[in-house]
Each structure stands twice: as structure tokens, then as C-alpha cells.
Amino acid sequence: MGLKKEEFDLESMDLPAALKDLSFEECRRLARQIRRTLITTVSKNGGHLSSNLGTVELTIALHRVFESPADKIVWDVGHQAYTHKLLTGRAGRFGTIRTEDGLSGFPRPDESEHDAFISGHSSTSVSAALGIAAAMKLKGDEHFTVAVLGDGALTGGESFEGLNNAGKSGTRLIIVLNYNEMSISKSVGATAKYLATLRTKDSYHKTKDAVENVLDRTPLVGQSIKKFVRSSKNAFKDMILHSTMFEDLGFEFVGPIDGHNIEELEKGLGAAKALECPTIVMVNTQKGHGYPPAEENPGGYHGVGAFDLSTGNPDVVPEDSWSAVFGRELVRLAHEDSRICAVTAAMKFGTGLQYFHKEIPDRFFDVGIAEQHAATFCGGLAAAGMIPVFAVYSTFLQRSYDQLLHDLAIMRVHAILGVDRAGIVGEDGETHQGLFDIPFLTTVPDITIYSPSNYRELELCLDKAVNEDKGLVAVRYPRGSESAELAEGEADTDMTCMTTEGARIAAVTYGRLFGELAKAREIAAERGFKFDIYKPVRIFPLSEELTERLKSYDKVYFFEECYGYGSIGEKYAARGVRCDRTAVHGFVPHGACGSLLDGLGLSAEKMAAKIMGRAENGKT
Amino acid sequence: MGLKKEEFDLESMDLPAALKDLSFEECRRLARQIRRTLITTVSKNGGHLSSNLGTVELTIALHRVFESPADKIVWDVGHQAYTHKLLTGRAGRFGTIRTEDGLSGFPRPDESEHDAFISGHSSTSVSAALGIAAAMKLKGDEHFTVAVLGDGALTGGESFEGLNNAGKSGTRLIIVLNYNEMSISKSVGATAKYLATLRTKDSYHKTKDAVENVLDRTPLVGQSIKKFVRSSKNAFKDMILHSTMFEDLGFEFVGPIDGHNIEELEKGLGAAKALECPTIVMVNTQKGHGYPPAEENPGGYHGVGAFDLSTGNPDVVPEDSWSAVFGRELVRLAHEDSRICAVTAAMKFGTGLQYFHKEIPDRFFDVGIAEQHAATFCGGLAAAGMIPVFAVYSTFLQRSYDQLLHDLAIMRVHAILGVDRAGIVGEDGETHQGLFDIPFLTTVPDITIYSPSNYRELELCLDKAVNEDKGLVAVRYPRGSESAELAEGEADTDMTCMTTEGARIAAVTYGRLFGELAKAREIAAERGFKFDIYKPVRIFPLSEELTERLKSYDKVYFFEECYGYGSIGEKYAARGVRCDRTAVHGFVPHGACGSLLDGLGLSAEKMAAKIMGRAENGKT
Q1: Does A210 sit within 8 Å of B127, measured CB to CB?
Q2: B413 and B326 in one domain?
Q3: Cα dist. A385→B113, B137, B170 in Å?
Q4: Which of B462, B484, B506 is the last residue of a domain?
Q5: Are residues A269 and A339 in the same domain?
Q6: What pLDDT, on the 0 to 100 scale, is given for residue A232?
Q7: Which A residues in the span 129-148 are in contact with B, Cβ-Cβ below 8 Å?
Q8: What is the CATH number of the domain that holds B410?
Q9: CA-CA-CA-CA dihedral for B121, B126, B132, B136, to nearest 10
Q10: To 5 degrees, how large is the angle CA A131–CA A137–CA A138?
Q11: Residue of A377, A567, A571 best to disrupt the B interface, most CBs of B under 10 A
Q12: How far apart are CA B578 and CA A576, in angstroms?
């Protein structure tokens, strides 16, 4: 790797154990080195930079205070765990992060014994860590379990379910609440406001009487925590602050601690450890800490404004993207109909709803990472006469499944789901692939599902979903941009057919794969092999017409970027269309989108080969 | 109805408007009359008695203070809304509650304009009410929206997601937190502990200094609330108590109020109304209040112990039931293997886990109404080497869908789901039917699903799931008891076949429907008509052997107590088994189980008629 003078050789060090031998000065030097690595690597491979820059010192301190893998560290969402990967034997492979067959961008137990639990969806860490801690308690294992979560994860109800159970668990569970100011906004809700109060120095205006009153009712705690709290600069303030919501929930509370000061972090984490009971350690960090452009121009840095509320997700869609087209068309429709409302679960920029927020703020709702609430909230809006449109990533919509059935479908209200990132998403990997929306949405009675192939179709489908359809309607579209070929194609909300006189073979697909299948048809044509293409746009309910037409062919092929059980092809097959189906079986790891699709038998070349009978990839 | 002297004629009164003309004394008399009606009706029709007895005065006060249907009342879970039904024009039909074509046991907007939103699953009311309130705000409608939820509903994360968004919403949303002590137990978690502190008088030990300190930071509120709070007996206490968690979440707080005192309730609700902003009104009620047996023998009443934690669900399964068999077998297995843990989401008695709790309390976890947490928690337990078994109703497992994928399937850990109440459940109706578990569970990669037909099979399947299978395994079984015929049948974990020489027709089913299909075979045999029966027990993954055998018949029929899209028959059909499938399409309302199954074409008679070709019911 060409280490510079004074740089640590992370590949040959015995990590994480060797961290304990470093002086604080060496730790700070290590932190600077790690920041350089993060910036270099993320600038090449993509990923979450600022959240990882925020947790460098915290990660070093965690591995100095705890004994991973005997002590278990569970990272919420996991896009803050890059330093953890560097410090647990994966420095040599770090340059491969998020690339095919390389390191995952999220913790994966099958990648390292130091990754105690998988994470990709938010707000699971307290529950997972509590499970691990409870198991350790049952086994008489006295090691600790540490969950690290950001304030954004607290907007998800599952975090609260976990906290509600953890406080009384009697386990050695430590919850590090990583509060980073950049992800906080008034609009992520009441918890954020509350946390901001905890953090803000100006709010410290208590009297000495009040402090002593609080001291009187402070529960008996270990000596080390008392000592730590008393020695801190803001002892009085800390004592007051910790006697609040989290203590009400049954936790001991340590903090807030400067999350970029390794000495303070070690004292705080050490104090939590000494308590040997469920404890929350609140750590203040700064997203992007130590990033030179940000330091030189902090105003401009903060002004980027491109972080999604509560997630801090830098996933801002470009103007030329499915999400942006969706967002702009929704604004146009909403100007025409004052009943239309837009709802997002902390993905305003990711789903292209920033246009709506800017132009029609009254009817825009960012509910935080709260997909259950979002769906039921849409049910309430619709019951009162509005037309809610919930824009959400396919993989996160999995969280709303019960609410789609219970609060939208049974209610028989009109509501629209903008299902973004449907299909293979690429580098984010198996926790983020949008492969299940068709299988689970088709189990919701009376739903209508569209899967447009180009921007114009997306606009037409959204228009129809809002203005003509009834009940629950989903419009699904992939990550990224439309392909150039498809931009010039027909646009329909029902079905497109490409037929040739005398063809006895038909192939069916929908969404962006239509581009690949059209190319496959050209490849086949060059070899004198002809087949017809049917591309439903309204993919569900099934089309009687399509069923009958497909039955007239000698052979039918389905190609879907979707899990096989519950796929559209399976449903046509069950209705008598004899067909060969290429769909996805199992989870799909991270990698480049095109390469993953090819591996699944869903590239033009693989489709052509399949139809011409020269390959067996992905056969159902 | 034969009204007694002095009884109110609820059928002819102009309700709920006429309530406002009653004196407090008349209200109390009305409350007594309603209690008699509740007790009489529930003793006949079944349903939730104690939760409804607890909300009689609260409901009267709500309809005196608010103007339903212009003001919207959203009942959480909804099994506390019987008085609401009596007071909103449904007294005449109240005797039909929970019977086929009669009133629903839950609020239903299509039953009355006074039912603002459906509810059957817990913890949705804040989100639904916030949606309604936000819509009203957008429309300039100044009416109020009131959500009424019990403390049990607060253990569900969606409530917290709703609260997190409601506090800052600027709507006229009032949340009535109906705290009823009987449903509270230490084991439902930290929130319960916190609420108990709020309620307990002994915890009032604050000094005057502290009170004034709190007063200083109390936000400016309407005069009426100040007046109300000041005139209450415990003004100081109230002022202290309300400066806590809920205020941290951004709400005004009124209470606690005696929920059986109509005057106090009206003052409190009126104060909340005067605030014109998101407000929580905490009301203390007693479950079963006014029920003579409870009043005469309160010790015995409390001692019944038959209320599930946090739900207060009286749904205690009898010894002779699928749930109890499951619970006892799990205890037996857990005595043999110390890794086995039992997890329930507030349904200890409903799922037969009371045996486990009694015998092996260390490995028993009741997490409250928190199905998301429960699944991820199981992932944590399993990752740390335990074998978690999550017993849960089919309909509530819908809440765990994302976690099944993300925290169990991707983690590739070994965990077992005991899917109780799978299939038609009867009187609880469309929000509770277990029709979707097969459709959504089969979309989870690598899952194994069993559907036993008799108790012995359930035991064998559970044994195999725990001791032999890998990964995620679901064992699903219905509400109620095994039928006598099936008790003597074979027990297998793979498949049972009933064949006759020369039969050219086959019928396939699984689970309890096997009993009906076997009867159908006898009916047919009496008329000289023969068919073979195949009953897979391990219903997923699909059986290659079954596929091949079915293909050899002239005609195949599938009968399933399951939603059609995603059903097992659909999957066999997609794999080339030409078959006629009888499954469920759409939601199924409440009614007697046998009658509902008959209506769906799933009784012995209907199956026989279908196979013999003399009926077209339920044809796919």
C-alpha cells in the first residue's frame, strides 16, 4: 500500500488487540490516517463518507475498551462501520469495499467474526444486540454487547420496541447513541427536538436547587460512573440531562461525550462497562469530521444540504433519474389537484421528493425512518379525502407490509406507492436489493401494480394511478436512469408488443429489463432467429389478453428482476401459460448492477442465449 | 328489548347528540345500563368484556365533549369500542355483534360514519389519527381528531413513530392514553414501568422548590388547562408529572384523570380541546370496572390471571387446543435442550406459552406488542447460539415481514416460527384472519413451512423444526382444537396419501382442511365416485415427488384456507400441475368458522360437490 513514514501498517498489526497498546497521541495519529483512507476509498468506490468520518474516534475507543469478538459490537444501519472494518483485519481488502466479491459496505457476520450482526435496514441494532446479550446472560457469558446507533435510527419504531425491552433486561447491554448534528432537523420529529435539547449548551439554565433535587433521586450507581460524571466539566448539567427520557425507560445514562475525543470516549465507555447493566452512552459526533473541504469551508459543507433527514444518506438523485422524474411529475400533478400529498420515510432526496418539498411544503411529510407509520398515516390522509403518495425504496417498503394490508387495503382507500429502487440496486448489496416488492405486493387484495420502462411511461402510470385508478396502486421503477434506447420507445400504461409474422416463440418482461430483452431480440435476429416480445406495463392484476396470446405460442420465456416465488411469470404459469422463467432465487450480494444482472441471466446476451437454447443459466 | 323502568331507549334516542342533554346523574345511570348490556351480550357472543367495561364513562364523556362524526374518534385495536357502537346508532343491532352479517367486533367505517378508521391490529391509532388530523388541517377543517389507545398499544413501535411525528404536527390531535392497571405488568417493559410511576401516588415526593422550577419552564398554555390543572386535587403533582416523557416528545399533557368519573373526564377532555394543539390526556381506568363478580370478589377477579400482558386479551387457550399442544411440546423440547427460548409478543396465553413461562421463566420472553422487535431479537438470540421459537398469530406476523427477511433469512440463522391462528379465525373478522402467512412466508428465501393436521403431527413437526431443520422454519396451525376424526389419523412430517386403485382424480389440501376433504371423499364414495387425497405436511419447499404424482392424474383439485395469490396450489400449478384451485380471494369478514369455510367452498360438502363437478363455488 506504500505506507508513508509514521503511518501504521494496519495489515500486519494484530488488530483490534494492538490498539490497546497505543498512546492517546498515537490514537489521534491513527485517526488521521484512517480518515485519509476513508476519503480516498470512498471517493473511488462510493459509499457513505460523512457518517464514517464521524465514527473514527468512537470506533477506536470501542475497540480499546471492549474485547471484540468476545464482546459483541452491533452497528445500526451499518454504513458507519468502515473504520470498524479497517481495525478488524480487513485493511488489506478495504480497497475492494462495495465491489463484486469485495468487502460489503455493511457488517456481515460471514465476512468477519467481528461483525456480530448484519445490518442494512435501520433501527434493528437494539433488538439484535438485546438478543445477543440475553443469550450471553443465559450462557453465563459475562462479556458485553454494544449497539451503536445514530439519532436517525431512533425515529424508527423498532428502536423504541428494543429500548422498551432492553431497560429491564438485566443484561450487559450498552447502547451508544451517536448523535450527529448534521442529520438532525426539526422535521424529523419530536425525538430529534428532545435530543437537540440534550445537546444544546444554551438550554443549561437550571438552578442549583434543581440540581440537588435531581441528585437526591439519582439511583445508586457504580462508583466509577459517579467519579466520571463528577470529573466532567459539566457535571451538574450532565446530572440534570440524564434524568430524562432514557432514564424513564430504565437505563443508566452516561454523557453526552465529545465523540471526537478519544480520552473522553474511553472514560465514558469504561464507566458504562463498570455499571454492568443496560446503559445508554450518548456521544456527540460531527458528520464528516476531519474532511478537509469541510474544515476549510464549513459553511459550504453544511450548505450542501444533500443529506436526507435522519439518515444522513448522501444518496441525492441526479436530475436524470427515475426518482427525479417521479418527483417532478408528482409536483405537476399536485399543482392540479390539491388533495395530493407526498410522504417519505427520511428519503426526500433519494426519492426525488425534494421538488415537492420545495414547491408544496404544506402537503409534504417526512416522517423519519418510520415506514409503518408512513403507511398508516397515508391511510388516515386518504380516509379524510386526500390522495397520499408514499415514495419509498422497495426494500424498505417491506416494513409496511402489515399496514398495507390493514390500514390501506382493508380500508379500501385510494393511495399510491412510489416504489423506488425496485430490482437490483447494485453496490448496497443483499439488504437493499428490491427483489421482493412484487412477491409481497401481489398478496395484497385488489392492488394495482405498474412497472414502466421509460420516463414517459412512469409519468403516464403515475398520472393514471392518481387520477383514474382506485384503491391501492403501486408504481415501481428502478434505481438510476432510463437507458437511451428506451427513452425513444413507445409509452403505454397497459402493454407493448413487438411481434413478427410467424414467430412461434414469445418472451415477456417489464420495467427496465425491456431494454435488455429488445437487445436480445436484435442479437437473435442477426442470427436469423425470431421471437416476439410482450411487455406489460400494468403488470398486476394479470392480463387476460396476455394470457390468451401467450398460450398461442410454442414456447414462452419470462425474464424478471424479482424473486421467483411470487413473481409475475409464476402467476401466468399457474394460469396455464407454459413458460420457462428466469427470476432471482435467494439473496443477491453487492456488485455492479450490470454484472449482477448478467450473473442472474438477465443481460441481453444471456437472454438471447437462453431463448436460442444455448444456455441453462437461472432456469426455474 | 323490553326496557326496564328508568332505562334509556338507545334505539330511539338521537345519539350521540342527545348525550349532551343528560345530567351527570343520568350519565351515571346510562353507564350502569350500558354495563348490563355489555355483560349480557358478551356472555352470549363472546368478545372483549373487561376492556369494554373499562371505557364506558370515557366513551360517554368523549361523545359529550366532541361532535362525532365531524370530530373523528379513532380507537386503537378497537376492542374497547363497544360502548361507542351502542352510542352511535347501533344499539338495535348490538345483539348481533361478532355474528355473521352482524356488527363487527371492531370499528369499521363501512358500518358507521362514526367509526373514523378500521382497527384490529394494535398501535395504529396515533398514525391513522394524525393522517386524518393533517388532512383536516390542510382543508381548514377545525374539528378535532381523537385517538384512544391503551398502555399496551404503547409497547408497539408504530405508536412511537406516530407520537414522534404528532408532537410537532400543529394539528388538533388529542391522544387519550387509557391506562388500565390490569394489563400492566413489569414484564411489558420500560414504558409500563414509567407509566406506573406516573400513576402511583406514592411516587409524589417532590419539594416545593422543584415544583416551582418546573413551573418556570412550563410552556405557555391556554387558560382553561391552567385552570383545570390548578383546580385539581393534585395540582403540584400533576405539574411535575406532566413535565416528563410525553412533554419531551412535544405534547401538552393533561392528567391523570379518573376514567370512571364523567365530570373529571369532561373537564380534562375539554381542557385538551381548548389547547388546540397535540395533547395527551392520560386517563386511569380499571379493566372490568363495574362487573359485579369482580366487585364482589376483586381478589379472585385479579387472580384469574388470564389476561395477556399488555393486550389484556382474554383469549386464553383451553388445554385441548393447537396452541396448548404447541406450548406443552415446546416445554418438553426445551427441557431436553437448554438452547431453546420462547418468545411472544404479548400473547402468552393466546399461544399456549404460559406453560413455558411457568416452567422455564429464564428462557421465556414476552416483548409486548412488538412483532418487529420479536423477530430481530430472535435473530440476536440465534446469532449467539440459542434456538429461538417465536409463537405468534398469523395475522400479527405480518408486522415482522421485513425482519424475517433481513434479520433471520439473510443472517441464515436457525429460528422457528410458531404460526398460530393460521387460516380462518372466525368472529374476529377481516383484520384477524390468518390468510396471508403462506403467501408472504414463501417469499422468504430458504424457509421451510409445515402445516400439520392433527396434534401429533404438530408435535412431530415442531420436534423436527427444532432438532433437524436448518434456517428459518415455520410451523403453522389453526385456532381451536383438532377434529376428532383427525386425532386418530396418521402422523407424518412429510406427506400422507389416501389412494384407491384406479382413481383418476386427485385432491390436495393440508392442515385442518384435511378432515373436511376426507369427509368429502366419503360423501363421494357413497355415490360411487372415487378420488385420491394427497396431504403434504411439509408444504414448502414444494415436493418433487408430489409434483410428479399429481401430473399423472386426469384432474387435480387444490383446497386451501389461504389467499389465492401466493398459495401452495398456485406454485404447483406454475410447475406444471394442471389443477383447479379453491382458495380465498379478498378479505373475509367475521362469522362462525364453519360457516365462513362453507361460504369459501372449503366445507366437506362443497369440496365433494366441486370434485364431482356439480358446483362452481370459489373457482379460480
Answers
A1: no
A2: yes
A3: 14, 12, 19
A4: B484
A5: no
A6: 39
A7: 129-136, 138-139
A8: 3.40.50.970
A9: 170
A10: 90
A11: A377
A12: 8
Chains A, B: CB pairs < 8 Å: 368
Q: Mean of the pLDDT values across residues A487-501?
A: 90
* Cα A369 to Cα A127: distance, rounded to the nearest angstrom: 16
Distance from the Cα of residue A163 to its chain's centroid: 21
> Does A45 fall in a domain?
no
Residue B25 neighbours by CB distance under 10 Å: 9
Q: pLDDT band for A354, please (50, 70, 90 cuts).
A: very high
Q: Chain A 583-612, CB below 8 Å of chain B: which residues?
A: 585-587
What separation in angstroms does the CA of B488 have from each of B327, B494, B524, B565?
Answer: 21, 17, 21, 33
Q: What integer pLDDT is reported at residue B151 of this predicted model?
A: 82
Segment (H or E) for A246: helix A245-248
Shared domain check, B362 and B230? no
pLDDT in tens, B556-579: 999 999 999 999 999 999 999 999
Whether B371 is catalytic is yes
Tell me whether residues A566 and B566 touch, CB distance under 8 A. yes
Which residues of chain B does A210 touch, with a Cβ-Cβ cutoff of 8 Å? 209-210, 213
Residue A93 lies in a domain: no
Are A466 and A574 within one domain? no
pTM: 0.90
CA-to-CA distance for B232 and B209, rounded, in angstroms? 20
A window 311-350, beta carbon within 8 A of B: 338, 341
User: Per the CB < 8 Å rule, is B131 touching A378?
Assistant: yes
Residue B93 among the catalytic residues: no
- Above 80 in pLDDT, residue B613? yes
Candidate list B64, B85, B98, B287, residue with the active-site label: B287
Residue B190: the pLDDT is 54
Q: Give Cα separations from B377 to A16, A128, B171, B370, B447 (angstroms).
A: 27, 5, 35, 10, 18
Q: In this structure, are A445 and A579 located in the same domain?
A: no
Q: Answer yes or no: is A49 within a domain.
A: no
Domain of residue A362, residue span: 322-484
Q: Is B47 exposed, middle or buried (0-12, 13-18, 19+ CB in 10 A)?
A: buried
Are B252 and B188 within one domain? Answer: yes
Q: Do B370 and A161 touch (CB under 8 A)?
A: yes
Confidence tier at B483 by pLDDT (50, 70, 90)? confident
Name the least confident of A544-548, B215-219, B250-254. Answer: B215-219
Q: How many domains does chain A have?
A: 3
Among A34-48, A330-344, A410-424, the least confident range: A34-48
pLDDT in the model for residue B252? 85
pLDDT in tens, A435-472: 999 999 999 999 999 999 999 999 999 999 999 999 99
| Rounded average pLDDT over A201-218 | 32
Same domain, yes or no: A506 and A477: no
Residue corresponding to grid cell 460471514: A110
CATH number at residue A544: 3.40.50.920
Positive or negative, the Cα torsion across A314, A320, A325, A331? positive
Q: What was the pLDDT predicted at A45? A: 83
Would the pLDDT of B369 be above 60?
yes
Identify the H or E element spanning A561. Answer: strand A555-563
* Residue from the list A161, A190, A569 with its beta carbon closest to the beta carbon of B164: A190
Q: What is the pLDDT of residues B211-241, one digit of tens each?
A: 333 333 333 333 333 344 333 333 333 433 4
**B466 and B364 share one domain:** yes
**Nine cell digits for residue B468:** 433437524
Residue B153 lies in a domain: yes
Domain-ending residue, one of A464, A484, A504: A484
Q: Which segments within B457-502 are labelled E, that is strand?
A: 472-476, 495-498
Split at pLDDT 50, 70, 90, the class of A289 is: confident
pLDDT at B557: 98
